[in-house]
Amino acid sequence: MKKKYEDNNYVIYYPDALEKFVNDMIICTKAQINNIYTFFNVKNLRKIQVNLFDNIDEFRKFVIDLRGGDEKSLPQYAKGTFDDGMINAYIEPNFIKTSSLYEKRKRMMLHETVHLIYNEILLMNNFDNRVVWLDEGLAQNLSLEEEKNDKKIKQSIISNNIAIDINDLIHGNIFITSEYNGYDLSYFAVRYLLDTLNSKQIIEIIKDKEKAIKLGKTIIINAINFYKERI
């Protein structure tokens, strides 16, 4: 049976099994959402519909149907999307509340809201101008989902000296490989931007794809050099 929660920012549809999780997610979201709006200098987005699933097959079918039935359009690692201006996500029903994954999932709505602001407000739905590493990195950083893993991510990238052109990252089979994790690299790159630039400068980069692409060619190397002496 589906339940519904609604406030000024979201209307959430979820199964009974996720009720405790949803309560925790709402508390977490309310604590951080205004900071995200302040970063982007927006008052709010709009009321966002959120569709939560506790069955991975149902989640995948829902999203794939939204995408016209193309199964290859949804990578196997995907657990959340912002298709059709909605937030759609699979949430494991038997989470251990003290796990790091539970903490990360609680921030899923914040993560996807950053994507919506980035694409709807800053890019005005011109998805051709979306730079994946920049969008994903901002979503992870501004949602605070990797806050507890920050040092671990930095140390791993620095020790492995993963110096790639981050523009090569696109969602699909090459986003997460045996050699690197595209989410970690995106987080690392944007963490560097947040530690060296202000929000206005970062927003200017988002709006200028050419500038973002140029930056992406060397940002991992620059970030490695920056953090080597700081962690």
Could you characterize the architecture of this molecule?
- By secondary structure, the chain is α/β, with parallel strands linked by helices.
- It has helices spanning 19-40, 56-66, 100-106, 108-122, 132-143, 150-160, 182-196, 199-206, 209-216, 219-228; strands spanning 2-6, 10-15, 48-53, 80-81, 87-90.
- The chain has a five-stranded mixed β-sheet with strand order 1-2-3-5-4, with helices on both faces.
- Helix 1 (19-40) links the parallel strand 2 (10-15) and strand 3.
- The radius of gyration is 17 Å and the shape is globular.
- Gyration radius (Cα, Å) is 17 Å
- Strand sequence of the main sheet, in spatial order? 1-2-3-5-4
Estimate what percentage of residues fall within beta strands. 5-15%
Distance between the termini: 48 Å
Low-confidence regions: none
Helix/strand structural class: alpha/beta
Order of helices and strands: EEHEHEEHHHHHHHH
**What is the residue-averaged pLDDT?**
92
Main sheet properties:
5 strands, mixed
Name the helicity range. Answer: 40-55%
Properties at a glance:
single chain; alpha/beta; 5-stranded mixed sheet
Task: Explain the layout of strands and helices.
Elements: E1 2-6, E2 10-15, H1 19-40, E3 48-53, H2 56-66, E4 80-81, E5 87-90, H3 100-106, H4 108-122, H5 132-143, H6 150-160, H7 182-196, H8 199-206, H9 209-216, H10 219-228
Parallel strand pairs: 2-3, 3-5
Antiparallel strand pairs: 1-2, 4-5
Helix pairs in contact: 1-4, 4-5, 5-7, 6-7, 7-10
